[in-house]
């Protein structure tokens, strides 16, 4: 934590670590130029599906409308009931870009040395669905499980833009114990193993923290990649 003796804006060492069994945090993993390229690619896809049933929108859940805008790639995450589909009203879901497939492979390879349960997926992971989540500075995401995938393959999550507080909970319910992990632009977090079905959420976005050159002026993009089938 910063102290009175530290210079304003000072950055502190954030080593790569296993936050919990099967959960690896790789800080500053993706360089700014690659972040901006991914943002540009996602923005182009979002524009291409604007005005269609696959437009980037705030999904309506049983509990209310989400504050986060979501774009689905590969397979569409549908609600009421929750499921993955390959088209909506006859409109096919855009494919996952090659850059996202490359990101997933690199991420697991880099995390393998920190977690045996993640190492088991390196080289055989199939990126079948990707969600591009846009958080405005006031957006949050409640505690939830990623439980619509049949596969126990890990979820790969990249942050770009404003810092988001990632809350990792337990596998039983939405209550404590949990741990909060600040995810800065370029940070990667992967969760699998015994924490694959852990409740997790984003209780806060730290506004105006996006670094210049990341591709976003405000808010946060979170790219999550999943293997859906067994």
TrEMBL record:
Swiss-Prot/TrEMBL keywords: Dioxygenase, Iron, Metal-binding, Oxidoreductase
Any one GO BP annotation for this protein: oxidative RNA demethylation
Domain named Fe2OG dioxygenase: residues: 126-229
Cofactor: Fe(2+)
Gene Ontology molecular functions: broad specificity oxidative DNA demethylase activity; ferrous iron binding; oxidative RNA demethylase activity
Gene3D superfamilies found in the cross-reference section: Alpha-ketoglutarate-dependent dioxygenase AlkB-like (2.60.120.590)
Source organism superkingdom: Bacteria
Pfam families: 2OG-FeII_Oxy_2
Gene Ontology cellular component list: cytoplasm
Residue sites binding Fe cation per the record: 144, 146, 200
Cofactor remark from the record: Binds 1 Fe(2+) ion per subunit.
Presence of keyword Iron: yes
Family annotation (InterPro entries): Alkb, AlkB-like, AlkB-like_sf, Oxoglu/Fe-dep_dioxygenase_dom
Protein name listed in UniProt: Alpha-ketoglutarate-dependent dioxygenase AlkB
Native organism: Corynebacterium gallinarum
């Amino acid at each position: 934590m910063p102290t009175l003796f530290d210079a304003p804006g000072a950055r502190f060492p954030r080593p790569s670590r296993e936050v919990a069994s099967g959960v690896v945090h790789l800080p500053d993993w993706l360089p700014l130029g690659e972040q901006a390229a991914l943002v540009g690619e996602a923005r182009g896809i979002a524009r291409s599906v604007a005005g269609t049933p696959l437009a980037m929108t705030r999904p309506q859940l049983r509990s209310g409308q989400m504050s986060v805008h979501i774009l689905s790639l590969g397979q569409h995450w549908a609600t009421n009931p929750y499921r993955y589909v390959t088209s909506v009203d006859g409109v096919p879901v855009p494919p996952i870009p090659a850059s996202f497939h490359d990101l997933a492979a690199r991420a697991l390879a880099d995390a393998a040395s920190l977690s045996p349960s993640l190492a088991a997926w390196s080289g055989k992971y199939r990126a079948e669905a990707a969600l591009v989540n846009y958080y405005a500075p006031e957006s949050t995401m409640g505690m939830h499980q990623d439980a619509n995938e049949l596969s126990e393959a890990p979820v790969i999550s990249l942050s770009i833009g404003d810092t988001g507080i990632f809350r990792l909970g337990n596998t039983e319910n939405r209550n404590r114990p949990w741990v909060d992990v600040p995810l800065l632009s370029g940070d990667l977090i992967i969760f699998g193993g015994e924490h694959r079905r852990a409740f997790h959420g984003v209780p806060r976005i730290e506004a105006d923290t996006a670094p210049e050159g990341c591709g976003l002026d405000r808010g946060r993009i979170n790219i999550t990649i999943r293997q859906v089938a067994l």
